[in-house]
TrEMBL record:
Its main location: membrane. One of its GO terms (cellular component) is plasma membrane. This is Multidrug transporter. It is found in: Cell membrane. The chain crosses the membrane at residues 12-31, 37-56, 68-91, 97-116, 123-141, 147-167, 188-209, 221-243, 250-267, 273-290. Pfam families: EamA. It is a multi-pass membrane protein. Keywords: Cell membrane, Membrane, Transmembrane, Transmembrane helix. Residues 8-140, 152-288 form the EamA domain.
Length: 306
C-alpha cells in the first residue's frame, strides 16, 4: 500500500512538471495583450473559482498559528514567487532566470533539513544536484559560453527559488494538518490573490474586457488557470504531502528539459549539442537525487527484518 502511494506521489509530481514546463508558451502569447501581473491575477482567479466549484466546503483551522501557514503559503507560493520571477525577466536574460530558478530543490533541501525533522540532506542528493545544475546551465547557455551577468536581475532570480522553497516547506506542514488537498490549495490561492491586489493597483490595473474577445487569449488563460494553477497546484501539493518537500522538488530539475522539448516541437526552436548534453545531465542528476535514498531505506528495512 505504501509503495502504491509512493508511486502515486511520483506520478503526480511528474504530471505537474510536464504541465508547468510548457506554460511559458501560453505566457509568451498572453504578454502581447496582458502585463505579467494581469496574467498572474487572472490565472489564479480562474484557478480559485474552479477549486471552489469542485470543493466548496470551508477549511476550518484550529487557531491563528494554523491559519498563518496558509497566509504565508499564499504570499510565497502564489504572489512573491511569480512576481519576483517576472520582474527578474525585465532585468536579465530569460535563460539566466530559467537556470537560476531551477536550483529551487537545493534551497528546499536546505530549509527542510532545518525545519522538517524527517527530511535531511544526504550525499546522493548533493551529487544529483551538482549533475542536474551542470545540465541546467548547459541548457540555459545553449552553447554560448559568454556569460553576461546582471546583478539586479540575477539576484532577483536567486530570490525566487528561495521563496518557492519556503512555500514547499509550508505546504509540507499544511499537509500534516490533514485538511482536504483541494480545500487547502483553494485557501492558499485566496491569500495569494489578496496579496496581489496592492500590486495590481500600483500597476494601474485595467480590466480591459475587449482582450477576452480574442479566442487565443481565452484559451491560454484557461490553460494557465485550469491546468497550471487549479489542477497542478493540487497535484503538486498532494505530491508534497506523499513524498515530502525535498523529493517532490527534485522534479523541478526536469522543467528546462520539458521547456526545450516544447520549444522544438511547438515553436520550432533549434536544439544544440549543449542542449542535448544538458538534458542528459539533468535527467541523470534528478534520477540520482531521487532514486538513491529509496535504495538506502530499503536496505535498512531488510536489515531490520533479518
Amino acid at each position: 500500500m505504501d509503495q502504491r502511494k509512493n508511486t502515486t506521489g511520483h506520478l503526480l509530481a511528474l504530471f505537474t512538471i510536464l504541465i508547468w514546463g510548457t506554460t511559458f508558451i501560453s505566457t509568451k502569447i498572453l504578454l502581447i495583450d496582458f502585463t505579467p501581473v494581469e496574467i498572474l491575477f487572472f490565472r489564479f482567479l480562474i484557478g480559485y473559482f474552479v477549486l471552489l466549484l469542485v470543493y466548496s466546503r470551508p477549511i476550518r483551522t484550529k487557531d491563528f498559528k494554523e491559519e498563518l501557514l496558509f497566509i504565508l503559503a499564499g504570499l510565497c507560493g502564489v504572489t512573491l514567487y511569480f512576481l519576483i520571477e517576472n520582474i527578474a525577466l525585465i532585468y536579465t536574460l530569460a535563460s539566466h532566470v530559467g537556470v537560476i530558478v531551477s536550483i529551487a530543490p537545493f534551497f528546499t533541501a536546505v530549509l527542510a533539513h532545518f525545519f522538517l525533522e524527517e527530511e535531511k540532506l544526504n550525499a546522493p542528493f548533493m551529487i544529483g544536484f551538482s549533475l542536474a545544475l551542470s545540465g541546467i546551465v548547459l541548457i540555459g547557455l545553449n552553447g554560448n559560453f559568454l556569460l553576461q551577468l546582471n546583478p539586479i536581475g540575477d539576484l532577483l532570480a536567486f530570490l525566487a527559488p528561495a521563496v518557492w522553497a519556503v512555500y514547499s516547506v509550508l505546504m509540507r506542514k499544511i499537509s500534516g494538518l490533514k485538511h482536504h488537498t483541494i480545500g487547502s490549495t483553494r485557501r492558499v490561492f485566496f491569500y495569494g490573490l489578496l496579496f496581489m491586489l496592492p500590486v495590481l493597483f500600483l500597476n494601474h490595473f485595467n480590466l480591459g474586457l475587449d482582450r477576452f474577445h480574442n479566442i487565443s487569449n481565452v484559451t491560454n488563460l484557461l490553460y494557465l488557470g485550469l491546468g497550471a494553477s487549479a489542477l497542478c497546484f493540487v497535484t503538486w501539493n498532494r505530491a508534497v504531502g506523499i513524498l515530502g518537500a525535498v523529493k517532490t522538488s527534485v522534479y523541478i530539475y526536469i522543467v528546462p528539459v520539458i521547456t526545450v522539448a516544447a520549444s522544438a516541437l511547438i515553436l520550432h526552436e533549434q536544439i544544440t549539442w549543449a542542449t542535448l548534453a544538458g538534458a542528459f545531465l539533468t535527467l541523470i542528476g534528478s534520477y540520482i537525487s531521487e532514486r538513491k535514498p529509496n535504495t538506502v531505506r530499503k536496505g535498512k528495512v531488510r536489515c531490520e527484518q533479518s
